[in-house]
Each structure stands twice: as C-alpha cells, then as structure tokens.
Write a structure and sequence with these properties.
Immunoglobulin-like; alpha/beta; 2 domains
Amino acid sequence: MFKKATFFGTLAGFGFLLGAISGAIAAETHPNEHATTASTGFQRIEQPLRNKVAVTLGGLGLIGLELWWFLLSKPKSRQATTSGEIQEVTVTVDGGYEPSQIVVQTGQPVRLNFQRLDPSSCLEEVRFSDFHITQTLPLNQTTAIEFTPEKPGKYEFTCGMNMFRGVVEVQASDPVASATVSPASANVPATLTPQSTP
C-alpha cells in the first residue's frame, strides 16, 4: 500500500512537471523566433494541440490523485491486542508503517513489534520523541519496542529522516473495569458479631 503511495506521488510529481512545461510552451508566444533561439539557446518545437491538452489533463489528474492520497485518505487504524498485561501490535515497515495508527490504553505496557521489509536507509530507524526512544530496525527482522503510556493523547513516531510517520493513540482506560472497590461495597458497614444476652 505504501509503495503504491510512493509510486503515485512520484507519478503525480512527474505529471505536474509535464503539465507545467506544456503550459509554458502553450502560453509562450514570440514574434521573432530567431531572436529567442539566439538568446536562450533553445529552439521552439510546436506541439499539436491534442498533445498539449493530453499532457495538461494528465498532470491535473495526477495532482488531484496526489491531493486525495495525502489529504483525504485516512490512515489504517488497529487496536492493540492484550496478552496478559501487555498490549501488542505488529507494525510492518515497508514503504511506510502498516498500520500507521495504533490504539492503546493508558497505564498498561505496550509492545510494538516492528517488522522491517524495506531496505531503504530512511526506514532503518524509528523514533518516538515523546517517549525518548530511538531504535534501529535491522532488515528482515522483527524489533520489539516497549513503553508504558501514562496520559491519553496522540503520540507520533517517525522514521530517521522524518518522512514516514505513524501515531499511537492512547485512550483513557475504563475506570469501572480497573476499579478495585465498587461504590456499593465501599458503603457497606463492617459486619457486627452478635452478642449473647446474659
């Protein structure tokens, strides 16, 4: 999925470049073509109108796709599974982070297992600045990172170059489930031992 994002982003940038070049050529009008050639060193090549329209529409379409991908598409979210006392999620590192949004509860240890499949140097490290964690991720191995979030909120993690990002969303634990004494039992008076009358 993230490799598709990189591909579409590159394709959109290339389309934008072609659209800009085509627009510049279409808008450029010089009455004296020889003077232009002498001053810039480039000779103007007239393109058919259909080529200009096709390149411009293709560039606009790719720009729209890039805007949708980065601004409107939502990251995939996953709730951590609890085994014993530890909340655990496996994160695949392949052209980004999958899932890129992880939901955990406060006050319980979290273990994120980063499985790195992408050989790019950008993804060889992951950083959790809020938890003061920086960890190298060896290629084709799973690396566990553990921490215990104490406060609700969204905590970002990034690659070493700050290009790829993910979020750990920490939600408040259910106070009813974690309560050791229920309100009803707190108001029960101590048991009295009956005394026998003489």
